[in-house]
Inverse folding.
């Protein structure tokens, strides 16, 4: 790793805005949160993956991956960030390095040509160039290539130095944010600014989630000036330094960006979420309060309360019809972070029982909220190995699993309904109406008659009755094997139902042993 | 659960129904060395022939008694005799199946009586079996014609037997009108997997499966052999698929004491389980063949993968009763909702068991109107449904007859564990194929200000 990248990583890992970091001793803080991954027991994306997640939703940009096949040939076109404008961000651009390129050191030249070709073909607002393991290892200087290309072609070329071996997906999120801070934010000025301009950071507009919330902001007259990066235009990122307030949606991913924008441009930030009814209201309240503190007219606060009252009432009314259909269902949540509690209260309000919620990636604040909402910490658990989760679901410890795609098949193979609540999902569940959509999805899943059919015994689980007609005599025309003489049906002794399903109740969640091989699901 | 409604109106828009004689002709084509003969005007045969050829993409033997004005008034017996003579001369068939049409039935011809007299008189017709089914176009649809033709075949060719002498490895499989040749293959494969040997009646899987033959003749190439039909009394049991085959199965029992089972559907986990259970009992196999176990496990996994798309899916379906029932129950078992159902004939006991509130005895106009009103998300009907699908911007899954704008219609298999699995995939994929990306306006959000849009500039080269 280059010295520049090393010091950048050290700086990112020692994030003063991070709550976990703030409570550490000096020694620990110096070490940063460089948790080494365990060989043979690791799952989840690399730093490059993380940077791509954070930046790819910028829609009018060509994302060019400087790498041999694996990084982008295998990785492209797998997320459902929605765009209301350009579709350029969806195209997969890579230099697809060959053996000759690597051995002969043609990487930089090929990258330079690739930048030219993509600018000529697509006229992008900018080209984001991602370094990867191999191109970092052979020492390609993407900063220099981007600089030269920017001068030559006039289109901003932004180096994103995120070789996968640098660390985890989460680190990659932050390094992607650093690239924006270094090269994009503050490079353009908006035509006008208003007291109602905000930045939304850490939302990726998956399946249009941002748009479930945007009508609320529209009604309050709040403008999303800067977006990192859901449905963002390059210009919005470049002008983000003129917003009045920053809302940080996924706190763990891009806190460095929010904090540095506060330091550099004096834009205060708050952490909020649009999952769940009370969260959405809380976020709107905080946003309006901070805008007023920054100089917006005070009447915004009143309008905000009126809107919240109206929308909350609408959402609860829309949820009520589902009550009889979902009441009493036991839900297991396997997500993490703020999602470990943000939807819980709505589910409980509808009579569902949350039997467990995973506390992975959760902060102390998140833990406090879970205890506050659920009464105690009995239902909290860290992570669960796939086999344990399978066993728990199989023993009917829960009626439905809410999680991300990687634990999908654990639930399905245990014949337990599953609803996707993470990043690869295809339905948006944000804001007031999003929770209605989520409950509808739970209803549709748990009440599907298919489950009962699939759980019913197979035709061969019951012994033959011999009631249809007598068993055949003579030889099988296919195999030539002759059947036993006599007409009595051949009864095969029924196997004692294989290891009678343990009648034991589901094991207490707190007793689950944590495993290193959990799902990187959040 | 469902109520059958007859719309009060004179006008039928975009017919859903295919006529009964055509159904009879299809059943006759499942007999080896056969030529179906329509007793009616030349046009009845021409339209039917075009329909069959467009669907099967095969040369189809189908003849007509070519009734003219004079014979229509004076009676068509001579036309039948002349037609049979000519067909025997030109095609040397072993079997001729006569289907009457609206024209001759309106006149009220006693074809059965005349045919009896003819056969008594014409000893030179030996070697060619001639059967007759009364299938006026104005009564029922394709499914009813098929049923009547199979009944006619049973009545004429299954010997009356006074004593049971069953071959316990032999079963008779009565195939419904909607089965594709691939579906016959699948049912036969399952039966054989249990060491049983089926006589398939009628068997389109060897005549209209679209195979290249070294032979050219004016009659069907393949189908149920006449001597196999004569062996039907020795079957251990008759397995009748579809409610439409109940009457023929009952006839076989009346004539030859063979008990029967009717399977109203062979699509969906429960339906196939019931079929497999009977095969297990028949064969005395407590442990089914590994392929059957495997297919069931695969089908269940397919259901899991497909339920994300079928759960809550709003379906509009138009088909003959048995086909509609089989597909609808399978979809409803996967969480789908039948919001519109239109069918072709009231003569079916399954209609009231349809998993929906109402079944319309109607046309594709009803399907289109109902689909629109109920907000259906997918149409399931034959190729003529393409107009409704285009008008409503909905995916169309083509089932039944005719399917003329896709080739390989006979390869579609929606029965058995395997067929159910591919049917679930088919529906899920039709839904996934809809190109939809969410837009801000879907959620009532204002568009992003244009100010932020990138204005491309020519690169300075």
């Amino acid at each position: 790793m280059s010295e520049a990248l090393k010091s950048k990583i050290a700086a990112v890992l020692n994030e003063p805005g991070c709550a976990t970091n703030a409570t550490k001793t000096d020694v620990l803080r110096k070490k940063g949160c460089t948790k080494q991954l365990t060989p043979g027991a690791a799952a989840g994306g690399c730093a490059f993956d993380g940077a791509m997640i954070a930046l790819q939703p910028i829609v009018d940009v060509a994302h060019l991956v400087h790498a041999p096949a694996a990084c982008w040939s295998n990785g492209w076109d797998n997320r459902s960030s929605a765009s209301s404008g350009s579709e350029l961000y969806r195209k997969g651009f890579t230099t697809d390095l060959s053996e000759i390129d690597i051995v002969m050191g043609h990487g930089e030249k090929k990258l330079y040509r690739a930048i030219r070709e993509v600018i000529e073909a697509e006229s992008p607002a900018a080209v984001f160039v991602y370094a990867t393991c191999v191109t970092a290892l052979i020492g390609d200087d993407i900063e220099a290539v981007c600089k030269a290309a920017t001068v030559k072609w006039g289109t901003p070329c932004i180096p994103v130095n995120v070789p996968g071996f640098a660390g985890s997906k989460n680190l990659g999120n932050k390094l992607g944010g650093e690239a924006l801070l270094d090269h994009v934010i503050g490079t353009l000025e908006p035509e006008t600014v208003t007291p109602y301009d905000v930045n939304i950071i850490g939302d990726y507009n998956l399946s249009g989630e941002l748009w479930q919330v945007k009508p609320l902001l529209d009604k309050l007259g709040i403008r999303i000036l800067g977006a990192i990066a859901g449905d963002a235009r390059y210009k919005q990122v470049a002008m983000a330094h003129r917003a009045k307030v920053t809302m940080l949606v996924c706190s763990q991913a891009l806190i460095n960006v929010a904090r540095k924008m506060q330091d550099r441009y004096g834009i205060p930030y708050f952490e909020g979420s649009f999952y769940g009814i009370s969260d959405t209201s809380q976020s709107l309240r905080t946003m309006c309060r901070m805008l007023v503190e920054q100089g917006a007219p005070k009447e915004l606060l009143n309008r905000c309360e009126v809107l919240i009252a109206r929308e909350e009432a609408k959402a609860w009314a829309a949820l009520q019809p589902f009550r009889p259909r979902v009441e009493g269902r036991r839900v297991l949540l396997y997500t993490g972070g703020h999602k470990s509690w943000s939807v819980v209260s709505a589910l409980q309000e509808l009579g569902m029982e949350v039997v467990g919620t995973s506390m992975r990636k959760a902060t102390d604040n998140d833990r406090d909220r879970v205890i506050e909402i659920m009464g105690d910490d009995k239902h909290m658990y860290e992570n669960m190995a796939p086999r344990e989760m399978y066993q728990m679901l199989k023993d009917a410890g829960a009626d439905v699993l809410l999680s991300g795609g990687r634990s999908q098949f654990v639930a399905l193979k245990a014949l337990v309904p599953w609803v996707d609540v993470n990043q690869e999902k295809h339905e948006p569940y944000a804001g007031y109406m999003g929770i209605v959509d989520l409950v509808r999805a739970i209803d549709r899943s748990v009440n599907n008659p298919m489950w009962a059919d699939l759980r019913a015994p197979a035709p061969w689980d019951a012994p033959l009755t011999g009631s249809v007609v007598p068993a055949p005599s003579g030889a099988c025309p296919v195999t030539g094997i002759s059947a036993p003489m006599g007409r009595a049906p051949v009864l095969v002794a029924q196997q004692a139902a294989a290891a009678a399903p343990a009648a034991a109740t589901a094991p207490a969640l707190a007793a689950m042993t944590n495993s290193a091989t959990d799902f990187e699901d959040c | 659960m469902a109520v059958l409604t007859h719309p009060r109106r004179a006008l039928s828009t975009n017919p859903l129904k295919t006529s009964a004689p055509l159904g009879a002709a299809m059943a006759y084509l499942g007999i080896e060395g056969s030529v179906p003969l329509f007793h009616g005007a030349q046009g009845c045969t021409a339209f039917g022939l075009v329909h069959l050829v467009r669907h099967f993409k095969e040369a189809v033997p189908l003849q007509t008694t070519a009734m003219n004005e004079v014979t229509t008034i004076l009676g068509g017996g001579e036309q039948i005799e002349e037609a049979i003579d000519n067909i025997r001369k030109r095609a040397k068939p072993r079997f001729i199946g006569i289907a009457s049409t609206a024209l001759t039935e309106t006149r009220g011809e006693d074809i059965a009586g005349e045919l009896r007299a003819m056969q008594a008189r014409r000893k030179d017709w030996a070697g060619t079996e001639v059967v007759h089914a009364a299938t006026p176009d104005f009564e029922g649809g394709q499914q009813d014609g098929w049923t009547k033709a199979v009944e006619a075949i049973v009545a004429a060719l299954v010997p009356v037997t006074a004593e049971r002498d069953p071959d316990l490895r032999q079963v008779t499989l009565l195939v419904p009108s909607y089965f594709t040749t691939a579906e016959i293959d699948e049912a036969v494969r399952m039966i054989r997997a249990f060491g049983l040997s089926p006589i398939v009646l009628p068997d389109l899987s060897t005549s209209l499966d679209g195979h290249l033959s070294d032979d050219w003749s004016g009659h069907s190439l393949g189908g149920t052999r006449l001597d196999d039909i004569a062996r039907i009394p020795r079957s251990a049991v008759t397995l009748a698929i579809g409610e439409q085959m109940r009457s023929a199965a009952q006839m076989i029992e009346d004539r030859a004491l063979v008990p029967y089972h009717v399977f109203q559907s062979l699509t969906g986990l429960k339906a196939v389980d019931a079929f497999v259970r009977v095969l297990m009992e028949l064969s005395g196999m407590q442990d089914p063949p590994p392929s059957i176990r495997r297919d069931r496990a695969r089908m269940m996994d397919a259901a899991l993968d497909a339920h994300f798309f079928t759960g809550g899916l709003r379906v509009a379906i138009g088909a003959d009763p048995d086909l509609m029932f089989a597909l609808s129950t399978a979809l409803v078992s996967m969480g789908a909702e039948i919001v519109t159902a239109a069918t072709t004939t009231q003569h079916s006991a399954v209609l009231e068991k349809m998993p929906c509130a109402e079944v319309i005895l109607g046309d594709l106009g009803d399907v289109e109107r109902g689909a629109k009103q109920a907000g259906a998300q997918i149409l399931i009907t034959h190729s003529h449904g393409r107009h409704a699908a285009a008008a409503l911007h909905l995916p169309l899954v083509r089932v039944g007859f005719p399917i003329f704008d896709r080739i390989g219609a006979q390869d579609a298999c929606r029965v058995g564990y395997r067929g159910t699995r591919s049917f679930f995939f088919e529906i899920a994929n039709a839904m996934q194929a809809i190109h939809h990306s969410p837009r801000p306006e879907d959620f009532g959000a204002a568009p992003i200000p244009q100010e932020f849009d990138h204005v491309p500039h020519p690169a300075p080269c």
